[in-house]
Amino acid sequence: MKYEVEINGRQVTVELEERDGQVTARVGGRPYEINVARPEGGAYLLFIGDEVYETRVWAEDGGGVRVKLRDRIFQAKVIDRKQRRGAADHGPEGRQQLTAPMPGKVVRVLRAAGDEVAAGQGVVVVEAMKMQNEIKSSKAGRVVEVRVSEGATVTANQVLAVVE
Amino acid sequence: MFKKLLIANRGEIAVRIARGCREMGISPVAVYSDADRAALHVRVADEAIHIGPPPSADSYLRIDKIIDAARRTGAEAIHPGYGFLSENAEFARAVEDAGLVLVGPPASAMQLMGSKTSARQAAQAVGAPVVPGTTEPLRSVEEALATAEEIGYPVMLKAASGGGGKGMRMVRSRDEIGSALALAQSEAAASFKDSSVYIEKFIERPRHIEIQLIGDRYGNLVYLGERECSLQRRHQKVVEECPSPVVDEDLRQRMGEAAVRIARSAGYYNAGTIEFLVDPQRNFYFLEMNTRLQVEHPVTELVTGRDLVHEQIRVAAGEKLSFSQSDVVLRGAAIECRVYAEDPHNNFLPSPGRITRVVTPAGPGVRYDSGSYSGWEVPIYYDPLLAKLCVWAETRAAAIDRLGRVLDEYTVEGINTTVPFFRAVVRDDAFRRGDFDTGFIDHFLKDGFGAHDPEGDEQARRLEDLAVIAAALDVRARATQSGAAQTRAAESRWKLYGRLHQRR
Predict the structure, then answer these.
(1) How high is the ipTM of this complex?
(2) B292 CB neighbour count, 10 Å cutoff
(3) CB B393, CB B365: distance < 8 Å
(4) For the packed helices B116-125 and B107-114, what is the interaxial angle rounded to 10 degrees?
(5) Which of B409, B455, B469, B478 would best serve as a mutation to test chain A binding (most A beta carbons within 10 A)?
(6) CB neighbours of B152 closer than 8 A, spacing ≥ 6?
(7) pTM listed for this prediction
(8) In chain B, which residues have their Cβ closer than 8 Å to the Cβ of A100?
(9) With an 8 Å Cβ cutoff, are B187 and A67 in contact?
């Protein structure tokens, strides 16, 4: 089996065959002979010669996984080819959607539709876990739409306002 | 001694207090909001009283509901923990008026020391040095501007009833002051129901060092060494240690005695903390008093061998302090990491959500205080503190090495936590040397933590390759599982198809 894996922002190809817990793998052309044990769900114990590496893998929102290995945590995404063709569908050039970075509550709307904003200026203030975060426009422009009002509860990645 | 005690808090501190109660044969009563029905602090209690919807203002800050809960369950005392109502003198008075005992200072001392402005005056009155600034809450932007010009930038805006970095803003120049004041006041109002903000000179490169105090109702008041709390992000402490690497016996005694003088003048008893700023010349300035148990109290417990919660409850019940100043001995070194549900790789954005699994560290010298568990959904309504991870060892260097080991053992799956950030901190040379101030974390983050690789390219590449292999193995395992599920689903659809055709 062949996979494309995105790890910490880099992309590598991994070829992997497994038979009775014996894994033969090539990662970016580097060969590995590994014996695998699975002590519990999400844990993979990799034996390479006399060395042993415990890895833990758990799923993240957005289809990626986290891999913990000794003192490190990697962000990885195993990409299948069909998915790759459909991706990269960005919005129109010059139009910026301001989204909530986390679930929370809108405590203040600083700009109304039609207002001009400078780059770095706040448009909406979202409070989560007692911290108020100003959601800022990354570019100068005009607020064309504000989709939330004060007191509204928002989810992560919800569009709060649109700047053009 | 009390038979039953109500804990007016949530999260790890409510669990820690419940443990103290159990050890003393006292039955712990929990309170909870709708968001916390299955929280750990409820799971460890004997009785649990629902006090309202998730927002704190409607639940954990409702004095009436908490007093009612105590009456209803027959609890004789209330421990407020930290945050929420712990430094609210109105609450302390309501507890006293209801004929209950607050595990904390008298309302009068809380009121005096709880307002940062009157606390400053109290400190000045006993000759303790203070940072230049105002003692009255600011009434307008104009007043803020005028005061800032007088004492010189940079200045700090601080909530008069504040703590924990809420309602606090540093201002470097006059054009920042308007928006900083508005944000500080609104955060102060939201967090403490008091929008008063005052202004203070910002001391450059300070260390934040605090003295733990405890006293009884008979005038016995002792200091239990200091805590080094300079590692802060957004004025919120993230790593604390005891003792401080820069405090020697002489400075400890001078700070400790100043702290005792200040607290004594306020008629203070029970546990409290006096915070000082210490400049590079090791001059110290009174900053504020926290009239409650601190988040970071475990490092003091580890180094002094005293249980502060037990002692708090004993003195609240009218007993004498069980030890005197000469009994207090510091032994070894302890470090605490505050583990938050935040993504350190993404500007520390809050990361609420479901914890799918926790692997907690164990072994020698480890203390783990948590309010969460595998399967717990971290609510969006409260402070994102998940757990406190503490270590103790014979020396500071050994404690840092131990902390490194313990952090590597610790895994929280499902949400982001600040653990990877602490892994980088313990490997940092300046931290290991003890050479830092309150600006350390900001500089550290600017440099891009974790970017350097101590193990060299070859081993790093090998670990990354193995992570790729583990990810691929996991995807295969998942595909096999969901493939099996799809096969079953497909079979049932064929059955359905067959049945539909039979009917025709």
Answers:
(1) 0.71
(2) 29
(3) yes
(4) 90
(5) B469
(6) B201
(7) 0.80
(8) none
(9) no
Chain B residues with beta carbon closer than 8 angstroms to that of A70: 408, 463
- For chain A, give percent helix, strand, coil, nearest 5: 5, 60, 40
Residue B110 tokens read as: 């809380």
- What does the pLDDT look like over B222-238, one tens digit per residue? 999 999 999 999 889 99
> Phi/psi of residue A14, each to 5°?
-125, 130
In angstroms, the CA B492 to CA B485 distance is 11
Q: How far is B423 from chain A (nearest CA, A)?
A: 7
CB-nearest partner of A30 from B411, B413, B465: B465
Q: How far apart are CA B487 and CA B206, in angstroms?
A: 65
Calculate helix-pair angle for B11-23, B308-316, nearest 10 degrees.
70
CA-nearest of B195, B190, B111 to B158 is B195
Q: Tell me the residues of chain B between 414 and 453 that have a Cβ less than 8 Å away from chain A.
A: 414, 420, 423
Of the candidates B354, B479, B467, which has an alpha carbon nearest to the alpha carbon of residue B413?
B354
C-beta of residue B344 within 8 angstroms of C-beta of residue B416: yes
Q: Beta-carbon neighbour count of residue B344 at 10 Å?
A: 22
Distance CA B170, CA B163 (A): 15
What's residue B487's pLDDT? 60
Q: How many CA atoms lie within 13 A of B214 on its CB side?
A: 29
Interface test with A, best of B466, B476, B478, B482 (most A CBs within 10 A): B466
Q: Which chain A residue has its CA at the smallest distance from B385's CA? A: A129
Tell me the nearest-neighbour CA distance from A90 into chain B, angstroms.
Answer: 21
Does residue A24 sit at the B interface (CB-CB below 8 Å)?
Answer: no
Residues with Cβ within 8 Å of B369's Cβ and at least 6 positions away in sequence, in order, are B12, B15, B16, B298, B387, B388, B390
**With bands split at pLDDT 50, 70 and 90, how would you rate the model's confidence at B163?**
low
Helix (H, G, I), strand (E, B) or coil at B449: coil
- Rounded to whole angstroms, how far apart are CA atoms B328 and B320? 16
A78 contacts on B by Cβ (under 8 Å): 471-472, 475
Which H or E element spans position A162? strand A159-163
